[in-house]
Design brief:
4-stranded parallel sheet; alpha/beta; 2 domains; 8 helices; 386 residues
Length: 386
């Protein structure tokens, strides 16, 4: 397996690893919104078990062991959990990273899902389009727009309103007689699937997997589109966890980034180049090797998180232009900022420069706030001892 493929596997794995992190970060054991209860604003919760039987007027942002929605969500649902079940109605879009996902109710707009097992039951549906990455996917309910997915196993038993583009690695691919596709079908698999006359309205295109390695690559990335979507989704979810766990530190970093940005970028370059050099010096001696390894791991974590901060700052600025003076949750700025920054980094020729500039900009502020918080903790501990 090549390094390129290993890096792509890492991207997917990092998105799935958000689930246990979210569970570990749970603030409460169980949270329940009763059937008679109405949440007039957005619902943000981190707990082992979250159950929503009532109505939520805004968005749902939830992370934990189990998330169940049997009521009505008037906005979007952004969920990271071990198990997700939706039996109620979500009038917006759903974005889910989970071990198991079961949709038994209507999702009015789009669905973007990364899961081990995914099932859209017969009484479930997706009103617009659906994108998924799963180990096993079963579609018994209709998708009224486009379908785009990658999986090891796929069973299609319902209708797709427009086009379907799917990749299945292995022979566990079935299109049952009850399935109908209103547009074209473009699928990649080891073998051709049995399709009855009239099941697909448009063209049928089958691309055989040339080899297991190339098939694995296309299955993981879907031409890199799905990996990019998962990368954005994971950054948004991690950003929400940071805001929930250390809100003051997040505000400090974003505030510092807004002050004298050119100086921040300059110091960021110093940190970006200086830390690896420092690690090399530490590793010259056997005694310094453990500290060097720990420092290097922390360095990579900080670089990864820097994209969350640059996205949050960019999103706050852009959203603030249109919603001046309005109180808002971190969700909208994170979605807007992280997505736009990611799209800018995908631009040809200049994308890598934008990526590095964003990392440099946030890096120095993150390090400064981190050391400031550590000094404050140290002073607090000293005061307690005295």
């Amino acid at each position: 397996m090549t390094r390129k493929q290993l890096s792509k596997i890492f991207i997917i794995s990092a998105a799935i690893l958000i689930v246990p992190i979210a569970t570990w970060a749970a603030i409460e054991k169980n949270i329940h919104v009763a059937e008679s209860e109405t949440i007039a604003d957005n619902f943000v919760s981190f707990a082992d078990s979250i159950r929503i039987d009532g109505n939520v007027e805004g968005d749902v942002i939830a992370a934990g062991g189990t998330v169940t929605i049997s009521g009505t969500v008037n906005g979007d649902a952004l969920i990271a959990a071990g198990h997700v079940r939706i039996t109620g109605a979500v009038l917006g879009s759903v974005r889910i990273v989970s071990g198991d996902v079961l949709i038994e109710g209507p999702v009015a707009k789009n669905a973007t899902i990364a899961a081990n097992t995914l099932r859209v039951a017969e009484n479930g549906s997706v009103g617009w389009s659906m994108g998924y990455l799963a180990w096993s996917a079963t579609l018994e309910g209709p998708v009224y727009g486009n379908l785009n997915g990658r999986s090891l196993g796929l069973t299609m038993a319902s209708s797709v309103g427009n086009n379907a583009v799917v990749a299945v690695r292995g022979s566990d691919f079935k299109i049952l007689s009850s399935a109908e596709i209103g547009g074209s079908l473009d699928y990649t698999s080891d073998t051709e699937v049995s399709i009855e006359d009239g099941q697909v309205s448009g063209l049928i295109t089958h691309t055989p997997a040339e080899s297991r390695e190339t098939d694995l690559e296309s299955w993981l990335t879907g031409g890199s589109t799905m990996a990019r979507i998962l990368s954005i989704l994971s950054l948004i979810l991690i950003g929400l966890l940071l805001v929930a766990l250390v809100p003051k530190s997040v505000d400090k970093v974003v505030t510092k980034m807004q002050n004298n940005p050119f100086a921040r970028i300059g110091w960021g370059i110093v940190v970006f180049l200086g830390v690896p050099l420092g690690v090399m010096v530490l590793c010259i001696s056997l005694i310094g090797i453990p500290l060097g390894i720990i420092t290097l791991l922390g360095y990579f974590v900080v670089i990864y998180l820097s994209r969350v901060y640059i996205g949050l700052m960019l999103g706050q600025w852009l959203v603030g232009l249109f919603w001046k003076g309005r109180k808002m949750t971190p969700l909208l700025p994170l979605i807007v900022g992280v997505t736009i920054f990611a799209m800018l980094t995908w631009l040809p020729y200049v994308g890598w420069l934008i990526f590095l500039a964003g990392i440099f900009w946030s890096l120095s502020s993150m390090i400064q706030v981190l050391f400031g918080d550590l000094r404050q903790l140290n002073r607090s501990a000293s005061d307690k001892k005295s």
